Amino acid sequence: MVGRRLKIVHYVNQFFGGIGGEDKADLTPQMRSGAVGPGTVLQEIIKDWGDVQSTIVCGDNYFAEHMEKAAKEILDLLLPISPDIFIAGPAFNAGRYGIGCGELCKKIKERLCIAAVTGMSPEQVAVNAYKNEIFIVKTDGVARGMQEPMRKMARLALKLYNNETIGSPDEEGYIPRGIRKNILGDTYASERAIDMLLAKFQGLPFKSEIVLPRFDSVSRAEPVKDISRATITLVTTGGVVPRGNPDKLKSHVATSYGRYRIDGPDTLAHERYEANHGGYYTAYVNQNPNRMLPIDVLAEMEKDGRIGKLYPYFYTTAGTGTYPEVAEKMAREILAEIRNDGANGVIITST
Amino acid sequence: MPAVLITNLVSIATNMKVNRFISGVSIPHLLGNPSLNPDDEKKLRRDIIQKVLTLLTT
After folding, report:
1. Do the chains contact at A350 and B9, CB–CB below 8 Å?
2. Residues A165 and A76 in one domain
3. pLDDT digits over B1-54, tens only?
4. A172, A190, A214: which is the final residue of a domain?
5. Backbone CA torsion sign across A134, A140, A142, A144
6. Minimal CA–CA distance to A130: which of A161, A149, A109?
């Protein structure tokens, strides 16, 4: 390649920097000349076109606990060097290290406008936070080998530096960023679909063009011990809201939930509530919202002592087209709140 | 925390491995039946909720 040799700065944590383990995780950012630790693998890979000019070493805890401060300190170290490319990690499955690598690549891309690439295992916690903003090369969970991740990271970084078109996640080896690109194919979708179906029937391998999300299974919680002393919370995905939808909850692709007070068995009477949901015929629930949110029955059961207590608020959202991650986030928030208030069980009404 | 889902989409609940679920009456009226008189409808609702509470304690 004609032209000057490129300046690369490499980032590693205290362990890969050879400083120490968890005991040195609060190391403040340091700069070393040349390649350190796995950086030497990187140096060998890029030797035809560049040099690892410097390595920044920082403790995982220091970075994770002082993200803004640490990022600024590292940016200050980088500015005088004027690197062409920034490579972080790879962090494999290490969460704090991943956060450090991800946050630094993001900040460096924003502030210095240079190619910044890292590598992580797809399951690790930092991936979701950064995959949409930076290129994260897909690695194994454990640090089994440096060659392959470093090769892919270096190649991708060089392409970015040269402003080349970046190919698909599979081609380039990075974690999908959730970006959909339209391309013109050689064959009709119907033909490709039939080919896939035929392959499936014959037990032959085929590759889905749409990757279906994988859902975790949730382990079964212990049952309520004594229902007559339990606090039960009502949650609905049927979209029941106060008439007029004052909090403007969405009727599909929900991004939030509402929390409304329960005032006795007649809470849902008198047309004070309606169903705001784009996925089912809501007339019957509008006539009597107890058909979706059984407050009349549960409030009576509380009076009769059948249940200990009906949690005094109900939670509501419209469950149509909801992203699983959003649903999970809502569930966790609701759970934290009701658990704090002493709830023992939940009834979720759906469509 | 134990949770019971009342849904009409039983195949989805099964597929998603929901731990505790029961089916409702129908999609537009999960816990009701407009063709019944209000008292019978409420009794129907109560019967389903009784089953839900049993599931919660199982």
Report:
1. yes
2. yes
3. 999 999 988 888 887 889 999 999 998 899 999 999 999 999 999 999 999 999
4. A172
5. negative
6. A109
Are A351 and B58 within 8 A, CB to CB? no
Pair (A127, A41) in one structural domain:
yes
Nearest-Cα distance to chain A for B1, in Å, is 6
Output the pLDDT for position A139. 96
pLDDT value, residue A185: 86
Domain assignment present for A213: no
Query: Rounded to an integer, what distance in angstroms lies between the CA atom of residue A48 and that of residue A285?
Result: 70
* Contacts B48 to A, Cβ<8 Å: 294
Helix H or strand E encompassing B14 = helix B10-15
Residue A192 lies in a domain: no
CB contact under 8 A, B45 and A351: no
Low-confidence ranges of chain A (pLDDT < 50): none
* φ, ψ of residue A160 in degrees (nearest 5): -65, -45
In 3D, which of B4, B33, B36, B54 has the Cα closest to residue A233? B4
Q: Are A125 and A49 found together in one domain?
A: yes
> Distance between CA atoms of A248 and A22, rounded to whole angstroms?
48
CATH for A17: 3.40.50.2300
What's the domain range around A265? 227-349
Residues A167 and A290 in one domain: no
| Residues A20 and A150 occupy one common structural domain | yes
ipTM over 0.95: yes
Distance of alpha carbon A252 from alpha carbon A31, whole angstroms: 50
